[in-house]
């Protein structure tokens, strides 16, 4: 009991999460838009997770920021831009096409072409 | 002849992939997320004070006054570890302001009592809103802001003894 009493101030000192970290927006359309964006944003302290999946305090604060801005009428794209301007492309799981990322789109096409060439060559041999 | 050449292609492919993965293992990419705002003006903000007798932090208070903007929290252990270095910087005449992230007045007062108080101002950032607007991804982080209100540098992580001279020189040079 005494130990619990010693711990009590520590528990009281913890700050509550941001109001919109764990509460959905009242407007379902806006909540859906916010949720869509949250699933593509990287949690900065737990880098393998999106902020939608993470329980980190900072992810909660980022969710609150996303919901707040979308509730105020901002578009998901503009909130994303705001974050990318601060943290770079690394903050998003949906990377924009750039000099560094074009192979992500080109590689599947190139591999398909190689596959087609290999298939053509091997079918010819049999014929 | 052509068939023989093709025979080696998979092995060469495997070796290239092996080398790529080995390099990635020995030298992992840096995962520190740095602010893209270095070199641009400090975003506008105005935070309420968190401890009695000390003003809150506002971006307008910074113009004409090069300083360090320390993002910290009383619950953060490296923040306590860097406190002596901030006290040294203060003693060297460097102005230090702070943003307290997700913190309470009582906890911050306790932190300052235990670790010393190098701060001219401390702003209360209960939901990390200003921290996020700075492009800061954790505590502690320290921004060097010049006399025109431009972010000159972002120091990620705790300030070590060996960083003190460099940070002090940066602040002095940014008048």
Low-pLDDT residue intervals, each spanning 5 or more residues of chain B = none
Structural class of chain A: mainly alpha
Number of helices of chain B: 5
Q: H/E order of the elements of chain A?
A: HHHHH
CATH topology of the largest domain in chain A: Helicase, Ruva Protein, domain 3
CATH class of the domain at 59-173 in chain B: Alpha Beta
Q: Give the CA-CA distance, first to last residue of chain A.
A: 86 Å
Instruction: Give, in spatial order, the strands making up the sheet with the most strands of chain B.
Output: 3-2-1-4-5
Name the chain pair whose interface involves the most residues. Answer: A-B, 22 and 23 residues
| Main sheet specs of chain A | none
Number of domains of chain A: 2
Average predicted confidence as pLDDT of chain A = 87
Q: What's the CATH class label of the largest domain in chain A?
A: Mainly Alpha
Largest β sheet strand count, sense and barrel closure of chain B: 5 strands, mixed
The CATH homologous superfamily of the largest domain in chain A corresponds to: Cytochrome C biogenesis protein
CATH topology of the domain at 59-173 in chain B: Glutaredoxin
Poorly predicted runs of 5 or more residues of chain A: none
């Amino acid at each position: 009991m005494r130990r619990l009493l010693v711990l009590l101030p520590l528990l009281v000192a913890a700050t509550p999460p941001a109001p919109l970290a764990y509460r959905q927006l009242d407007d379902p359309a806006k909540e859906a838009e916010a949720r869509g964006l949250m699933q593509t944003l990287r949690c900065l302290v737990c880098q393998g997770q999106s902020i939608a999946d993470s329980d980190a305090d900072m992810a909660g604060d980022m969710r609150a920021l996303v919901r707040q801005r979308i509730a105020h009428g901002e578009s998901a794209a503009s909130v994303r831009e705001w974050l990318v301007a601060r943290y770079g492309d690394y903050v998003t799981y949906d990377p924009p096409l750039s000099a560094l990322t074009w192979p992500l789109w080109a590689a599947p096409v190139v591999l398909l072409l190689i596959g087609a060439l290999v298939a053509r060559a091997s079918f010819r041999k049999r014929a | 002849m052509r068939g023989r050449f093709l025979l080696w292609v998979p092995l060469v492919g495997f070796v290239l992939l092996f080398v790529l993965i080995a390099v990635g293992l020995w030298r992992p990419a840096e995962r520190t997320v740095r602010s893209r705002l270095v070199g641009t003006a400090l975003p506008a903000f105005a935070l309420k004070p968190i401890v009695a007798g000390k003003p809150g932090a506002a971006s307008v208070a910074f113009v004409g006054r090069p300083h360090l903007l320390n993002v910290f929290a009383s619950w953060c252990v490296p923040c306590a570890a860097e406190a002596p270095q901030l006290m040294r910087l203060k003693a060297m005449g460097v102005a230090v302001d702070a943003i307290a992230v997700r913190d309470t007045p009582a906890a911050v007062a306790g932190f300052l009592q235990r670790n010393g108080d190098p701060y001219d101002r401390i702003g209360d950032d209960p939901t990390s809103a200003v921290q996020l607007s700075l492009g800061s991804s954790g505590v502690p982080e320290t921004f060097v802001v010049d006399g025109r209100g431009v972010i000159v540098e972002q120091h990620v992580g705790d300030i070590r003894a060996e960083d003190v001279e460099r940070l002090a020189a940066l602040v002095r040079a940014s008048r």
